[in-house]
Queue: 2 jobs
Job 1
Amino acid sequence: TSVGEKKVIGIDMALAQKIADELGVKLEVQDMNFQALLTSLTGGKVDIAIAGINPTEERKKSMDFSADYLPTEQKVIIRKEDGSRYLFGKTVGVQKSITQEALAKEKIKDAKIVSLAHVPEVVLELKQGKVDGLVVEGIVGGQYLVFNDDLMFSEVEFPNSVKSSAA
């Protein structure tokens, strides 16, 4: 990695490197938004997508998946100053084209859903008061709470909300 170049790191990248090593190929990482990731995979532009993808029945129709790994509960992040546990009728942010978007639309009654390309964009919208909550995987949300002490997990719970990732 040269100076100023972004390096993608994390459990998914470590797993991708292990797969490349096992296959004896060089890993080339392309960082893209989730929607582009899925279309690049189904369009044959990439060989593997590894980004906390939930293997839904709809996705299984157009792509193959590994065994599930990394089960995580779906959570809602709010501003500490709000401390509200109810988001009905509020504005809720999500990352576009992921299972949390569908979950928010289905389970948070009368909410206005704001879908953006990347979670950091939604976190910024939350911090600026443009959305009242953010639906996110608990493991992902926990990392944002480490660096944003003005945010917290809401007490909102979704029944049967544990989702697993697959590659």
Job 2
Amino acid sequence: QFRVTTELVRVPVVVIDKRQDRLFTELKPQDFTVLENGVRQTITAFEAERAPLTLLLLLEDSRLIQYIRGEVIRPAGIFISQMLEPQDYAAIVAFDLRPRVLSDFTKNRQQLITAINELARGWPAFSESNLYDAVQFALLGGALYDYEYKGLAEVKGRTGVILIASCIDQFRSAN
């Protein structure tokens, strides 16, 4: 039997440029300086990892945006098919007066693409949009008809929302 004592400090880091529009992903240990009380520390372990992402695409689908609908739906499909990594999860929620879950959180790219294609083939039912309630639903979840959606707030780890909307809200009811 023996004892080992070690002090390993894990420091997760995300590096972006000054304008915050470029993410640096190919960094090496020599790109960093770690100081403790002004004294340079040796980096003994370095692991470049990309944590899985859980992403919510929140897309307005009202007649209000019908003239740019293609510019909304097509990029969403490209993002899903080309930008998400295999370990990433995504969900798609569309909204007009009410939100509707097109695809709950999944890694299945085909399921997500199918949801985007169904959205593209359909036609908006309402001219109005309810942005605030849709955002609240997407983040916090709730009951929708006979479906219970958990929302992004329940997800642990790296999360993000891509909102594509006119940002015109005609029926806010959320507090």
